Amino acid sequence: MKLGMIGLGKMGFNLALNLLRLGHEVVVSDIHPEKGAELARHGALSASSIEDLVNKLERPRIIWLMVPAGVVESVTETLAGLLEAEDIIIEGGNSHYQQSIARAEKLQKLGIHFLDTGTSGGTEGAEHGACLMIGGNREVFTSVEPLFRDLAVDQGYLYAGESGSGHFLKMIHNGIEYGMMQSIAEGFELLEKSSFDFNYEDVARLWSNGSVIRGWLMELTQSAFSKDPKLAGIRGVMQSSGEGKWTVQTALDLQASTPVIALSLLMRYRSLEEDTFHGKVVAALRNEFGGHAVVKED
Amino acid sequence: MKLGMIGLGKMGFNLALNLLRLGHEVVVSDIHPEKGAELARHGALSASSIEDLVNKLERPRIIWLMVPAGVVESVTETLAGLLEAEDIIIEGGNSHYQQSIARAEKLQKLGIHFLDTGTSGGTEGAEHGACLMIGGNREVFTSVEPLFRDLAVDQGYLYAGESGSGHFLKMIHNGIEYGMMQSIAEGFELLEKSSFDFNYEDVARLWSNGSVIRGWLMELTQSAFSKDPKLAGIRGVMQSSGEGKWTVQTALDLQASTPVIALSLLMRYRSLEEDTFHGKVVAALRNEFGGHAVVKED
Amino acid sequence: MKLGMIGLGKMGFNLALNLLRLGHEVVVSDIHPEKGAELARHGALSASSIEDLVNKLERPRIIWLMVPAGVVESVTETLAGLLEAEDIIIEGGNSHYQQSIARAEKLQKLGIHFLDTGTSGGTEGAEHGACLMIGGNREVFTSVEPLFRDLAVDQGYLYAGESGSGHFLKMIHNGIEYGMMQSIAEGFELLEKSSFDFNYEDVARLWSNGSVIRGWLMELTQSAFSKDPKLAGIRGVMQSSGEGKWTVQTALDLQASTPVIALSLLMRYRSLEEDTFHGKVVAALRNEFGGHAVVKED
Amino acid sequence: MKLGMIGLGKMGFNLALNLLRLGHEVVVSDIHPEKGAELARHGALSASSIEDLVNKLERPRIIWLMVPAGVVESVTETLAGLLEAEDIIIEGGNSHYQQSIARAEKLQKLGIHFLDTGTSGGTEGAEHGACLMIGGNREVFTSVEPLFRDLAVDQGYLYAGESGSGHFLKMIHNGIEYGMMQSIAEGFELLEKSSFDFNYEDVARLWSNGSVIRGWLMELTQSAFSKDPKLAGIRGVMQSSGEGKWTVQTALDLQASTPVIALSLLMRYRSLEEDTFHGKVVAALRNEFGGHAVVKED
């Protein structure tokens, strides 16, 4: 099929490369033109702008957005002014599902179709086979299904349902991911604090083979320890990019008791600070009622 | 190799069967003699008692224990009175690692070797390839390594270190498992409470293919939903068999902050009750200070 | 002073009564006119409508809103159309602080002043002395300070700062309250599950006298147990009215790790369900990998 | 009454002083003899050793132990060799209730009585009126009740039940205290992270007067902020002395879901570390699958 790919970061670049290999025609565009030039060497048609990209496609156009969450809105608005009825936007980024629902409704008034598409599998998946969760109109989905089939690993794509369901699934996927990562991490913390002398790469390799907790995250754990046996070179600062927070906010709205996902997020926040104000208050209170010693600031 | 297998429950039976298929000589014993008889049809030598089993082996004897946690102590005591120096006990159950350390020390005084061996992979793993974590003397481990190599999947066994380290690793493995299961479960609870209409088997299959959270637990989730699409036939009572509790107790002793594993366990306890006393207290307090309505008992 | 009181529920009625006793002139209004009639017997001037109430006050008018959170917006809008420059609205309900900031800004354009006023102390406090947290313009606060001084217990009111700070403080107060109530409740659950045979009213009275954890909530705990020694008559369903959720949402926005307040809220949500979907998933998974028995639905 | 007081630290010294003021005869002993000498100036009879203290009392002797948890066992053993039938030991420290049960049983065989006595109220309570929770034989309790009545605030002592119940109540009291302190502390952390500019001493004073969350801990919060408005001089290191851990261990044994008390403890453990191993693992995993940047160690 022929399609446009807007956004050639780690994910978009690899998805485009993958599509080219599989024989699709891909018109590409990025704010960094050298990305498009590089893909042109792999057979892509490089567009100089979004308008140029739109012009290089035939109706009904198919455009895959893989841009940072912060610019999805502006790019979508630009596209809304350029596209025509029956054109299709596949939004592959990590947008909030409620925004995707709103975008789909807005575009639908112009006759433009919108498929919210959660993408998992990391940069490796983008290149070698991803996991895709697609929401929107089923007929529209079917019309571009060959793209999803080619980009995903076997059984790795799903028409999830109405608009928003694709990004909702991706959000929940990430919430689960937060919990699973924290679970694994707590386990290794216990190994580290124990009096035994484990080789963590060996343990992660072992648990990747035949155990109940085997899976890709454990394989990645092995990979990480293979590069730095005690992770001595990095700090335990756990950044987050939004989906975990959205998951917990959604849990609050749905009155769902999800303590493990919530705590996984809160421990990330905790890791951003070397010291806490709540700790100071508790330490001060212990001193007040029991005369317990406090640790003074230097 | 030739060895004895004591305990022919789901795990022990399958391990013995697996060993027989691979050409080992296995003397078997269980309190239910029909289990031994069944394995005899697959080539095992069935012993009428532990003493008989010991007598049917040559020195240095190798005996694999796969009995319920509650009887490990008594069976080990019995064996201590029958075995001789250089004999080897492989304890494959879910014993507390501190008990394993104590047992190893006690047996060592008699010259009997003891390998604490955590076993993961479920009943399927016992039959088709398990994950084994072994603690104890390295030379003793090496002398029986062919057994571990044959029973485990490729790269699925590890000499973990000194006595206790095998069962310690298994305990932590199970702690991680608690957290990962609760993470997955919370994710599906959010799907269930959402206004979307997901097919959970499809979602679990999708996430088993190409996603970051793919792994055996997700595949089992798919399997469970394939049998009962909404799990309508079962109650959400989450039993536990001890290792999760041990993990949290160990975290307390090591002063390790492991909120996700701890909450996974506490939610299991919560699930054992239809109503809680703490809930009554909070409800009563809200009524006291704000006049908020309470839900009356029928 | 002379003021209007709109909303004569449990809180507004008692505040008005208290003001009347202290010699203030109070014009009252409620959608249930009998409330106004009852207060008229205590000296209030009962208004037949909001418009009537506004007309019965002299400029600069002082109007205290004590209406349910759901109607604050509409009543405020009505007042915006009736009041004049320099009039003052004291909003004493549990509104979200960001809404209060927005309302203050909107009214300021009309020259109308707005003091967001968090009220604590329960219905008892409304009658005998409350705790008041006030945000908005300091001069406006000062102009009506006598009202706050009269309604509050000694040292029980505070000019908290700019618009929104009053309701922010009240929100955080309630978040702390959630955590403290859950703490007390968990303690009594442990007493209940222990093998000892405690008299909970005696324990709560004891802890109300001289202990580190003494305070009003412990006194209310005693009061609750004095009426029902084991709380046998009520179910442990823990409703919530919003401020706890807002606190956790705020914590997420501020990237603050507040596990105890978060869990207090999540346990309330958990209490609304007799069974959980996450519990079903975990139970099903245990069955899948280990053959562990599940509890069947009836 | 006449009694011996062993252990003249912050708590024991003040209790003895308080008893002397109220007209009791107190024989005192401490490993630091100057403590006894100081109390002698207030009318105490200072003993040179435990044996001397025992000899200075008449049968049936009453001896109050107020020694550090680590030496209760040895002092009790010493007393067991010196005391006679019908003598009474009041153990006022923070011992684990199961140890108190064991001690009571052991001493009972010698005819010596043992009252496990939890003491709350801090050093201030020891001097001006404490909260006492007493377990053991009811007749023995009654025989020394005047001491408890004099040392406690009004209604501030309770015969809790059989042996161990006093220290059990104290343990749970401290578990609740952990949760309440963490609740308050999280609230102030949210104030600190907000964009408002609160005066924390003012807020704590406000909440100490008329609010739902008023109580001694809030008063102590005010006191702490009065000395250091932002607690800039201390670090948020939250030490713990055992009872919180015991409470959580007890919750695990009783299969009680007590997330708030558990998390209060785990956050204390977290505060002992500037960085965590679990944080490193999560950061490394994010880098592995998504190429997310990590924070390097210096």
UniProtKB/TrEMBL annotation, chains A, B, C, D:
Keyword terms of this UniProt record: Gluconate utilization, Oxidoreductase
Domain of life: Bacteria
Coiled coil: none
Pfam families, A to Z: 6PGD, NAD_binding_2
GO molecular-function terms, A-Z: NADP binding; phosphogluconate dehydrogenase (decarboxylating) activity
The keyword Transcription regulation belongs to this UniProt entry's keyword annotation: no
Annotated 6-phosphogluconate dehydrogenase C-terminal domain residues: 166-293
GO BP terms: D-gluconate metabolic process; pentose-phosphate shunt
Similarity comment: Belongs to the 6-phosphogluconate dehydrogenase family.
Listed name of the protein: 6-phosphogluconate dehydrogenase (Decarboxylating)
Organism: Paenibacillus albidus
